[in-house]
Amino acid sequence: MNKNRASFSKTFPWLLLFLAVGYLFYYFRTDIFSRPVPKTETLTEETLPQVKEEKKEEFTGGLYYFEAGTGGSEIFRLDLLTNEKKLVFTDKDENLKIKQIGGSVTKKKKVLLAVGEEKSVFASELYFVSLDGKATKEKLEFSLVSPQPPSVSADGEQILYIVFNNAEKDFGFMLNIVDRNGQNKRQLAKSAVTISKPVFQDNGRLVAYVVSQPEGDELWQVGVEEAVPQKIRGFTNQTVVSLVWSNDGYLVSLGEKISGGVKNTEIYLLGKDGQELSKLTENKLILDSLQQSGVLMAYLSYDFAGGSRKVGVDGDIVVMNLKDKKTKTYQKATQLLGLIL
Questions:
Q1: What domain range is 272 assigned to?
Q2: Domain for residue 300, yes or no?
Q3: Residue 219 and residue 195: Cα distance in Å, rounded?
Q4: pTM of the predicted model, to two decimals?
Q5: Is there a domain that residue 325 lies in?
Q6: Of 72, 160, 221, 293, which is least surrounded by CB within 10 A?
Q7: Rounded-to-integer distance, Cα 222 and Cα 242, Å
Q8: Is position 261 within any domain?
Q9: 144 lies in some domain
Q10: What is the pLDDT of residues 283-302, one digit of tens each?
């Protein structure tokens, strides 16, 4: 009996401990041994997280353009998204008026202006003018007398110009190049017939230009360093109205050659070999003043039933997305100066 009591007294504390643990486990149970299996569900368009798509505007950036007027000329920057225009330069209060504009706006947002007295036909001085709103002017130390406007490289360091020599010994049109400081003048090409529309490649290594033959215009190019002209292709009974470089080769506005002008111009994308890659327009209007940057191309559109563009009449600014050929029309302008994206 005493032995049984002794045995019970030893096991009783353990029994109480076991009962206490059992009670606590029951009271504070967490169902750790019976957690539910996560429920799986099939993802549908309704249950997938909805990502809000941002509408991407096709026409953004800025376009510089020129408006000629009787009281003076003005250069504006057009916001392609908002259609707002901002005046960046005017010659209304200048003694020397804009006679010609040298190609496109440079990467530093400057434009080359050939200016002269109001009553003069040709320009007498060259200026670089900033288009940042301050209209800072930089006079160049040399001048050009040419019936055709000069053309400036993208970095603003080199200038193309065309001169005509009437002397029998050296008769013809000459395409020349000069540094912006007036140094290093040299001839790149020469022709007995008209040379026009010279334009620098973006990297400044090549120059494209047009040679006008009786049977139609020709597209040529020449290296700035080696100065060896190369004919790219001819256009039978067609006139090159406007010409710019593109990433694929060239953008050209071509029109039917008619007596005293041109009609039914369309814009084409040409490869580096001059072969047609695509026809970009189908409107049979007069298309001029090409500019291109990235996926956007800008031009002026003139609706003249008679054919050739009339002097002093402005065209509608049209911007095209080269990927889908969608266009947007803005106000009128005299000349386009450059797209800035």
A1: 237-341
A2: yes
A3: 10
A4: 0.81
A5: yes
A6: 72
A7: 18
A8: yes
A9: no
A10: 888 889 999 999 999 999 99
